[in-house]
Design brief:
The chain is built from 13 helices and 27 strands. The protein has 565 residues and is an alpha+beta fold.
Length: 565
């Protein structure tokens, strides 16, 4: 899930040779994408014993997951292979008729093809953001001003003036000039004269078909997909696949897969196949809730979720584990709700000893169930002592024992960085995000300008030789290399001549720290806590429910009611 970086499972593999400690950044039939605000029926049982499970029932919710998001950014290929005893059915349009081929193997290729004449590609970008949450909040602010927008992710998340509303160069420039006249310095036109474009083709039995949209349907078994020429990149996918254009001039390979089978490719990679059973159950419930609450993320590209830490890590049926399969089956259809609405089911690797309220990390209204929870069963810290006070905060970070995360690699950390490196990091960040600023050559001081009661840095002020640059909330993790979270304090490092040489970043946690700590859940399950107790601890006031027609998807979900089955 969103939670940038590697997963808890990946970190476990890395650290077993060191100390067997574990971490993970966060960093989660009928179609849902075209529904509007609400209501699901209870799922039918999905078998979890066969490689891909039995055929889904009519009540299964089918997701659209972009498993290869920007295929064609450079010349590339994928191999599609039926598993033993099976065949693939390939569908695409030839003129005004549908053509169907059957084969055991095919290739998808993207090559750069010259255009007959250069073409102008242009979009009006209104802002660039680290996370979908910040981009969506910005999009709502633009919509409140009467400007139609869409959220995209060409690399970092962006908010665009809606392309089918602001269609022409003249209209886009008119809007930009109006925004600039009102003092907006962040909006800009991204313009490119294109002479070559990626072109997709399907190669079957020596024949090549140039097609922009191709559907790949297996007979009964998963499809093996190999990206590039390295068989180590092979992944098995249940359900069907579809190659389709995206909003960036390239292509996306989309896996259409039932939700419960999708979870088989998420839970063992977001947590770990060897995690205690109760932790696997908690992760299954949260991953299911997260998926359903976040179906709007890639509307601009025609699918719903991605397969990396900007959503939840998803690896198809490669690396499924009996323990997590059992946890998924045991919690079938169960979601976490608050007042009959799906919770914003955020989670991260390691909180650093205290979870963060939503608004400490992103903009937007707080969620009552996402609170500052001290990750300890004892009374290790007096909650009346606000961590907004620097003295209290540094004392809190000095505590290392008595937390559920004690012993985790990223529970406590300290990393030094030179002024030269900090300067380079900030300049690169400002360039990458196109943040308006006065060019500078040197950094004179870093200072925590505002800290939340949960200890998260809200505003970090950077004094340069030309003025002050402020970095806000979760973007702080993008601006500099050392911080693994926003739960840290700064210690200046001086040389023998008493000049500032750099800073030590000392803190705790890995990821955004909102919601469930996977490291904490792992240890709570080892201590005998049930999945319900774990989720009640990290999401106070929320409750586990089976999906039913009274549950809503949340205020941001563009869904309709699912008809009775």
């Amino acid at each position: 899930m969103q939670k940038k970086g590697c997963t808890l499972r990946q970190n476990l593999v890395k650290t077993k040779s060191q100390s067997r400690k574990f971490t993970r950044p966060a960093g989660m039939g009928k179609r849902l994408g075209h529904w509007s605000r609400t209501i699901l029926t209870v799922f039918g049982l999905i078998g979890l014993t066969a490689a891909s499970g039995p055929a889904p029932s009519s009540n299964d919710v089918e997701l659209k997951v972009g498993v290869v998001q920007r295929f064609g950014e450079e010349p590339d290929q994928m191999t599609l292979q039926a598993t033993s005893g099976d065949r693939l059915m390939l569908r695409f349009n030839t003129g005004d008729r549908q053509q169907t081929l059957q084969t055991t193997s095919a290739k998808l290729e993207v090559t750069m093809q010259p255009l007959p004449a250069p073409a102008l590609e242009e979009r009006l970008v209104l802002g660039i953001y680290r996370s979908f949450e910040m981009a969506e909040d910005s999009a709502k602010a633009w919509q409140a001003k009467g400007i139609e927008v869409e959220v995209a992710q060409p690399e970092r998340w962006q908010v665009w003036a809606k392309r089918d509303v602001y269609k022409t160069p003249l209209v886009r420039r008119w809007l930009l000039q109006n925004l600039q006249a009102q003092g907006d310095r962040a909006a800009y036109l991204e313009t490119e004269v294109v002479q070559k474009v990626p072109k997709a083709s399907l190669v079957v039995n020596g024949f090549r078909y140039d097609r922009d949209q191709i559907e790949i349907i297996p007979g009964k078994n998963p499809i093996q997909v190999t990206k590039g020429k390295n068989s180590k990149n092979s992944v098995l996918y249940a359900g069907s696949l579809r190659l389709q254009p995206n909003a960036y001039g390239t292509y996306t390979l989309v896996n259409q897969v039932p939700l419960e089978i999708y979870l088989r490719g998420v839970v063992p990679h977001e947590l770990d196949g060897g995690a205690p059973y109760a932790a696997a159950e908690a992760q299954a419930i949260i991953a299911r809730t997260y998926a359903l609450r976040n179906l709007r993320r890639f509307t601009v590209d025609g699918y719903e979720l991605c397969a990396d830490t900007h959503c939840q890590v998803y690896k198809g049926l490669t690396g499924t584990v009996p323990t997590t399969d059992k946890a998924i089956a045991a919690t079938k259809g169960q979601v976490l709700t608050y007042q009959n609405e799906l919770v914003d089911a955020l989670y991260s690797s390691t909180s650093g000893g205290i979870s963060a309220p939503f608004n400490d990390v992103w903009n937007g209204p707080d969620r009552p169930y996402l609170q500052a929870v001290v990750d300890s069963s004892g009374t290790i810290w007096n909650p009346q002592l606000s961590l907004a006070q620097e003295q209290n905060f540094q004392r809190f970070i000095s505590l290392k024992q008595g937390f559920h995360e004690t012993g985790g690699n990223w529970f406590r950390w300290s990393k030094a960085s030179s002024i030269a490196q900090i300067t380079q990091d900030l300049q690169l960040y400002l360039k990458r995000t196109k943040t308006p600023h006065t060019p500078f050559k040197a950094i004179k001081q870093l200072r925590v300008a505002e800290r939340s009661p949960s200890g998260r840095i809200i505003r970090l002020a950077v004094q340069t030789d030309t003025g002050v640059v402020e970095i806000l909330k979760d973007d702080i993790r993008s601006a500099f290399r050392p911080p693994r979270s926003t739960l840290f304090y700064l210690q200046p490092i001086y040389g023998a001549d008493k000049t500032l040489k750099g800073y030590a970043f000392t803190g705790g946690g890995l990821g955004h720290g909102v919601g469930m700590s996977q490291t904490g859940a792992f240890n709570l399950a080892k201590a005998g806590w049930s999945s319900q107790q774990i989720l009640n601890f990290y999401y106070p006031g929320a409750q586990i429910q089976p999906l039913n027609q009274s549950i809503t998807f949340g205020p941001d979900q563009n869904t309709k009611a699912l008809p009775n089955s």
